[in-house]
Amino acid sequence: LLRDFPMRARAAQLRRLNTELLPAAVRHVAADELKSIVTERLARSEIASAQRIAWLLVGLRFAPHRRSRQLFDLVGKSRARALRLGATLYAQADHAKNLSPLPAVVLARLIEKLAPHATPTYASGAGWVGDRERLRDLVRGLVDQLAASDDEEAASELDRLCRLSSVAEWRVVLDAALFEHVRAVRSTRFLH
User: Fold this and answer.
1) Rounded to whole angstroms, how far apart are CA atoms 167 and 47?
2) Phi and psi of 90, rounded to 5°?
3) Which helix (H) or strand (E) element contains residue 14?
């Protein structure tokens, strides 16, 4: 089914790919076979960019540095592609819970690409939950993953993100995450 998925999928087909087919494949298809399918799909030049983003996100599980470079090159400075990345990641990863094995640098780059298109604050009062709110929750989830990591690289990535002007609106959230990360690392390394 995945090998024969249309190269130029309609919106409904793409939604089904992201919400059902790829998450099921990650859970039930052998890693080597899924890696082979991802490699085959990404080798096709005629694949649409929205679908390429979906396959690259799955490919992050097998070659995080290589696939993240391809993903971030594809997204570039395009707002539309960054929003597509956020929507696809939200659909595939259930609020980024499945991304925990990714290196800190990849998580930080995802935050760097997505955070400028979301606001860290919650709206007051009643309202609808839309794409902007989902993107905010996704970015918060990625920041929380970096904060909870005991990896030394996470601290340097959080510090780098704090200094970026493109994510200045997220500065308070990132500072709090850096503080939490330092506290978590200190408590894991504390000896009685």
Assistant:
1) 31
2) -60, -45
3) helix 11-16
pLDDT tens-digit map of 45-103: 999 999 999 999 999 989 999 999 999 999 999 999 999 999 999 888 753 455 557 89
What's the pTM value of the predicted model, to 2 decimals?
0.87
Return d(Cα 55, Cα 115) in angstroms, integer. 22
d(CA 70, CA 47): 14
Using CA atoms, how far apart are residues 74 and 60, in angstroms rounded to an integer? Answer: 14
Cα dihedral 157, 160, 162, 168, rounded to 10, equals -120
The one-letter code for the residue type at 132 is R
Give yes or no for a contact between 70 and 42, defined as CB atoms under 8 angstroms apart: yes
Rounded Cα distance between 88 and 50, Å, is: 8
What span, in angstroms and rounded, lies between the C-alpha atoms of 72 and 105?
A: 12
- Sign of the C-alpha dihedral computed for residues 145, 67, 74 and 72 taken in this order: positive
Position 176: which residue type? A
CA-wise closest residue to 87 among 44, 39, 130, 38: 130
Instruction: Quote the CA–CA distance of 155 and 160 in Å, as a whole number.
Output: 9
**Taking the chain, what is the end-to-end CA distance rounded to the nearest angstrom?**
54
Which residue, 44, 38, 84, 40, is CA-closest to 63? Answer: 38
CB atoms within 10 A of CB 28: 8
